[in-house]
Design goal:
The complex is a heterodimer. Chain A is built from 10 helices and 22 strands. Chain A is α/β, with parallel strands linked by helices. In chain A, helix 2 runs antiparallel to helix 7 and helix 8 crosses helix 9. The C terminus of chain A is likely disordered. The C terminus of chain B is likely disordered. The chains are: A alpha/beta, B alpha/beta.
Chain lengths: ~450, ~475
């Protein structure tokens, strides 16, 4: 390993120094200082490192970034409803450039079983467990971007669901990056904890306004207690010039369930890291992801599922549709520890290349130390099926429409997994908007039925 | 009645059956590696100037390299300065017949079950036996030379066919390729050379038996096989090694070149000393094997059965340059006790309509760690490339591990690439089913494992398939073997 290049980290060190100590308890200051030290020692991931083999951060290294102020900010577009992917029938928390925007948000009332507030407020008020939960972010084994988030986060969402509370309405977190001059960086930190038997549906939506460069570096972690269950949707709709580096960590206790649906529709360079630790017996974990890339977009999905206890199941399905010069990367690891007998793990990665210049790199890994397990993984890469196209065209469907139909069919099993009807319609609409051909196929109804 | 677990314990702790040392005086260079040693090796072998220069260039490059640590294997530092880089049985005059061969040597071959005499008369397999680096006897040479096939030791090829060697040496695995290939390029002792001329189909399977003998001698074999247009050759490589306490390093390089319409089938059975049940001793097998399908419609097929070595680290690869060329990789790797294997293949698709197939079967027992690591790369110009990969692992016992690290890099949308992998344990219900029908546990396990590996075994040439199954049985059947 070569030593980290000091020049790479300078802009972040400067931002850290300029901001100075945050207001808040002593532990926060020392936690952030400690995290900055770790980030400084590790530096940005170097080209050629195994975890970043297919993703080049050269574009990021050249740039300088500044933190947004801690004051609430205005969105350029005032009509919030146009920015939302669906009508949030439940709760809504809006963050603009990392700062909570009370005027746009609709938080649950106290005593409703779910507590949602800006993380900065939770820290200030000393919400029970906040220190331990924030600090637990270090335990997921993420690389330096997570440390950078820990050092520089100002806010994000603090979400706590109390014992046995079943929250039926989804909670929608909208993170907007609005960086007209192209130098902004945000480090939102979302801390989610579910007590025993609690239920939660969370939508995380990262939206960029405009095409200028900025860095969005969110870090979300879940602590899921026994018998609790969370459904998580994650949308990446960042701007063309953006760098989006996200980390999602999940810790699951016995008989809990976690389902994540990740949709990446736009962004300059996108890197998503997911780590799920299955730490009790009978845990169910599902990670699904769909990437639709075109232009020169680069989307890199890294997932790790760590089975450390017996009788857990995990399913993973990541798909990518890549057009024009898009570059997709998938690296999925299933780790089965010696004690995790009777593990059933399935992983699948499929990519559809729609142009000569699209590239897909896939690395599905299994690391298994227990003998009584069923683990499979599969990966396929290919283009649209000629026979399928011919079949549709012979039935009078135009070439473009047939292509779109086939691509939609490829992507549909991930879209159909969305339980929330409004969100499903929104994702479908985005999918068609993003598909090459710019036309909706005849006979396909877009939207929820 | 023996339970499956007991049986597995028994087989996992089974001794190496081919452990013995032949006492022959060795003509060795002093331990350590420097330019003088390389010059001395080159001088002993009476090599031309260009080859010495090539070795020195490699050595110079090697000094700048660091030992790779990315494979998922764990072993103590190798001290390259304490190794002996060349040893050969005492120089004797040119041998005319088997009678002149050192009787000790012949006995060694007898113990290995490959009596040259018998081989010569009965089996129709030409054997170029490598005993600690120098070829001792070559059989059926006359018959092959009638067809224009050159099959000889590497040193002989350098003397007799320098043009061919110069043209192809390092053309597939360049001297700067990787740490161990570079080391091999600097100090390689001997190996085999094979050239099949245009339009010739080799009438017999060519075979080399390797054997590491003198203590402290790293083996640096170099094999080069060139199949000219429209030719075919099947090449066998099989190994056993004597029991030894200190680790022995084996860093071989194998280069294959297939021109238009040529086909090379390369089969390996590797059963070197794997170390004792505590993980002490055993061979480090760090091999670079690569084949280039240079011509259109050419085909290279690798088949390997790996049961030996403390550490196996090799990726027989195919560079599919010619249009419509085909690459195949069939592998069975067994690790038991403390054995570690990190093996797989690379299929690099460059030409149009190139196809590759990968079938890998890993079996882990005891504390063995078995990794598949492979690359399928479809280059931009590789229109219509096709790959199918299947990597299955079987685990026996709860202290072993099976891992899969496939890399898939696709730069052409017309490619069709499929990869699938599974990991499972030897099924209790399968054993139960067979037991119920009066088949002993041992036979049942052997049957299940053989079934698991069937797809690979059927790719082996007949004689080898028998040997491979026997080997697997010896490794698996405990007392029955």
């Amino acid at each position: 390993m070569t030593a980290p290049n000091a020049a790479d980290t300078q802009t972040f060190l400067d931002a850290y120094a300029e901001r100075g100590k945050v207001d808040g308890p002593e532990w926060l200051a020392s936690y952030q200082e400690e995290s900055m030290k770790l980030f400084r020692a590790a530096g940005l991931p170097l080209p050629g490192s195994e975890e970043w083999k297919y993703t080049n951060l050269a574009g990021l290294r050249k740039r300088e970034f500044a933190l947004a102020g801690a004051q609430p900010q205005q969105i350029t577009s005032t009509d919030l409803s146009e920015l939302l992917i669906c009508d949030p029938d439940g709760f809504l928390a809006v963050f603009v450039n990392g700062v909570f925007s009370a005027e746009h948000s609709r938080l649950p009332e106290a005593g409703s079983g779910i507590q949602v507030e800006p993380l900065s407020a939770a820290i200030e008020n000393g919400s029970p467990g906040v220190e331990e939960l924030v600090a637990s972010g270090k335990t997921f084994g993420f690389e330096s971007f997570a440390d950078l988030n820990s050092a520089l986060f100002h806010s994000g969402a603090w979400i706590h669901v109390t014992r046995g509370a079943e929250i039926t309405e989804p909670l929608y977190l909208l993170h907007i990056s609005d960086s007209p001059d192209g130098s902004l960086m945000t480090h939102p930190r979302n801390v989610v904890s579910l007590e025993e038997g609690a239920r939660l549906t969370l939508i995380e939506d990262y939206l960029g306004l405009g095409d200028s460069a900025y860095l969005s570096n969110p870090f979300t972690h879940f602590q899921i207690a026994d018998n609790a269950g969370a459904v998580h949707y994650r949308l990446v709709r960042e701007g063309e010039g953006s760098f989006h580096v996200s980390n999602l960590g999940v810790r699951q206790a016995g008989h809990s369930s976690f389902t994540s649906h990740s949709f990446c529709f736009s962004g300059g360079v996108v890197r998503n890291d997911v780590a799920a630790f299955l730490e009790g017996e009978g845990v169910e974990c599902t990670l699904n992801g769909l990437t639709v890339g075109r232009g020169e977009e680069h989307v890199d999905n890294h997932t790790r599922i760590i089975h450390s206890q017996p009788n857990c199941n995990s399913w993973e399905m990541y798909k990518a549709v890549l057009a024009e010069k898009a570059h997709g990367v998938f690296n999925g690891k299933i780790y089965v520890a010696q004690d995790a007998q009777k593990t059933d793990a399935k992983q699948s990665n499929q990519a559809l290349l729609l142009s000569d210049t699209a590239v897909m790199d896939s690395k599905p890994e299994l690391e298994i130390y227990a003998d009584d397990v069923k683990c499979t993984h599969g990966a396929t890469v290919g283009q649209l099926n000629e026979d399928g196209l011919f079949y549709l065209r012979s039935r009078g469907i135009g070439k473009e429409a047939a292509r779109v139909l086939l691509v939609y069919a490829f992507a549909s099993d991930l879209v159909s997994g969305i339980e929330h009807p409004g969100l499903k319609a929104g994702v479908e609409a985005l999918l068609f908007e993003k598909l090459p051909g710019d036309c909706e196929p005849a006979g396909v109804t877009v939207g929820a039925t | 009645m023996q339970s499956p677990t007991d049986h597995l314990n028994e087989l996992a702790s089974q001794d190496y059956k081919y452990g013995f040392v032949t006492d022959i005086e060795s003509d060795s260079v002093p331990p350590g590696l420097n330019e003088d040693v390389i010059k001395k090796i080159s001088a002993i072998k009476e090599e031309p100037e260009w080859l010495l220069e090539w070795r020195l260039k490699a050595y110079e490059h090697w000094l700048k390299m660091t030992e790779p640590r990315w494979p998922k294997v764990d072993y103590p530092e190798v001290d390259f300065q304490s190794m002996v880089y060349y040893s050969s049985p005492k120089a004797k005059k040119e041998l005319q017949s088997l009678d002149e061969v050192d009787p000790d040597l012949l006995e060694t071959f007898d113990k290995l079950g490959i009596s040259l005499d018998e081989q010569k008369r009965l089996s129709g397999v030409a054997v170029d036996a490598v005993f600690d680096s120098v070829s001792v006897a070559t059989t059926f040479k006359d018959k092959l030379s009638e067809l224009g096939i050159i099959f000889c030791s590497f040193s002989e090829a350098v003397r007799e066919h320098p043009d061919l060697v110069k043209k192809y040496l390092g053309s597939v695995v360049p001297y700067s390729d990787n740490f161990y290939a570079t080391l091999n390029s600097a100090v390689f002792s001997d190996g085999s050379f094979c050239y099949i001329p245009k339009g010739v189909r080799s009438p017999m399977e060519l075979s080399t038996y390797f054997r590491i003998n003198a203590a402290n001698t790293g083996q640096f074999e170099r094999t080069l096989i060139v199949a000219d247009e429209d030719s075919y050759v099947s090449y066998l490589e099989g190994c056993t090694a004597p029991m030894r306490d200190e680790n022995q390093l084996h860093a071989a390089v194998v280069e294959l070149v297939a021109l238009d319409n040529a086909q090379i089938k390369y089969s390996t059975v590797q059963n070197w000393y794997p170390g004792d049940e505590n993980g002490k001793g055993g061979i480090y097998n760090f091999v670079t094997k690569r084949g280039a399908c240079r011509g259109s419609d050419s085909k290279i097929s690798w088949t390997q059965v790996e049961t030996g070595s403390a550490i196996t680290w090799k990726y027989p690869s195919c560079i599919l340059q010619g249009d419509n060329s085909v690459g195949e990789f069939y592998s069975v790797a067994l690790t038991k006790n403390y054995q570690q294997a990190d093996t797989g293949t690379k299929m690099v698709h460059i030409g149009k309509n190139t196809r590759s197939t990968i079938i890998s079967k890993g079996i882990s027992a005891g504390r063995g760690q078995n990794s598949y690591r492979g690359l399928v790369k479809i280059n931009k110009g590789a229109e219509g490339a096709r790959n199918f990969s299947q990597c299955d692992s079987m685990l026996m016992g709860d202290r072993c591990g099976a891992h899969t690290f496939p890399y898939i890099e696709i730069n052409n949308p017309t490619a069709q690439v499929e990869h699938e992998a599974s990991t499972s344990k030897i099924g209790e219900d399968q054993i139960f089913y067979l037991r119920q029908r009066g088949i002993s546990t041992e036979d049942a396990i052997s049957m299940i494992v053989n079934g698991f590996c069937k797809e690979v075994f059927r790719e082996l040439p007949m004689e080898f398939a028998v040997e491979a199954q026997k080997l697997l049985s010896i490794s698996l059947e405990g007392s029955v073997g």
